[in-house]
Amino acid sequence: HFFPNISSIPRTLVGNGSAGWDVFQKYLGSHTGQNVAGLSKLKNYFQRFGYINASLGSNFTDDFDDLLESAVKTYQLNFNLKPTGELDAPTIRHLVIPRCGNADIVNGSSAMNAGKFKANSTAVPAH
Amino acid sequence: YSFFPGRPRWPPGKTELSYAFLPENQLSDAVKGVFARAFERWSEVTPLTFTETAAFTDADIRVGFFRGDHGDGEPFDGALGTLAHAFSPPNGRLHMDGDENWVLDGDFLSSAGSVLSATDLESVAVHEIGHILGLGHSSLEGAIMYPTLPPVTRKVELADDDIQGVQDLYGSNPNPNGTLPMLTPSNQKDTSGSAI
After folding, report:
1. What is the pLDDT of residues B97-142, one digit of tens each?
2. Cβ of B132 under 8 Å from any chain A Cβ?
């Protein structure tokens, strides 16, 4: 769909911003140890962008486990968010923003912030 | 800035890259013009030049708009979500999500926040061309290579981070048009002899 300018977008195509990953809003406040219905979808998201190793397959549980906590923490580092490992409001707000489909982490190595952080610290667990 | 693993780039000496649009998309001149501007932004800071060709299969860079699963293992997901993706050099495939509401003029000042599903075409094109040239994602929010782009947002100017990254791969433009010359070891002193 191409439009010369924003006012030429027909009302029928005017979205409310609830498409894409807005469904992740319901995981706000989730943290390690919980089981939240649908959380496996978030693991699929993190796997798609390299935060969870592809070799683990795609059949994830809805458990907020160490795997997810590590992915969240690495994501937070990459996007300059406080690395809490929890799905706090700033993290959820960022997760739902449309983005490039290319992965942030390729073959397990991140050249974004998290990779640099790991090079200087042992505080972030490696995948 | 970052690179793909192994730091792939277009071969040394290959500074003239051709690009073509998927014929089936039947893109208008206006859409093609947006891409031409996006390519120009990278050309201004590197020795690379980009020329459109009609020969899609022979082009170095092949731009196409696709919907859903389009056969490369990275299906698009409808409006919003993922907007586009591109492959590392010298693959040359640049894919845009055909389900997005692409806006050509990038003027969102009159939107009053009401059209939340509109995406600026040039902003995404500039980012994906960065991947085509070998750049990965950056953690600097002001960089073109930052992975996310909120709807109704325009970001088309290369940041210092983007320029340093692409010049790390290809060097600077030896003939910058109307811009200040890039610093090189031979011109890092002013006429008085003091270092800049």
Report:
1. 999 999 998 777 766 556 678 899 999 999 999 999 999 999 999 9
2. no
Contact across the interface for A98 and B149, Cβ inside 8 Å: yes
Q: How far is CA B137 from the centre of its chain?
A: 12
Cα(B74)–Cα(B69) distance, rounded to whole angstroms?
A: 7
CB A101 within 8 A of CB B66: no
User: What would the two tokens of residue B113 be?
Assistant: 């926040």
Considering CB atoms only, which of B3, B102, B115 is closest to A111?
B3
Catalytic residue set of B:
128
Residue B2 and residue A106: Cα distance in Å, rounded?
A: 11
Give residues with Cβ within 8 angstroms of B142, minimum separation 6: B159, B161
A 20-39 residues with CB below 8 A of B?
20-21
Interface predicted TM-score (ipTM) of this complex, two decimals: 0.87
Q: Tell whether B116 lies on the interface with A, counting CB pairs under 8 A.
A: yes
Tokens 């109704």 belong to B152
The Cα angle at residue A100 between residues A97 and A104, in degrees rounded to 5: 100
Residue B122 contacts A, CB cutoff 8 Å: no
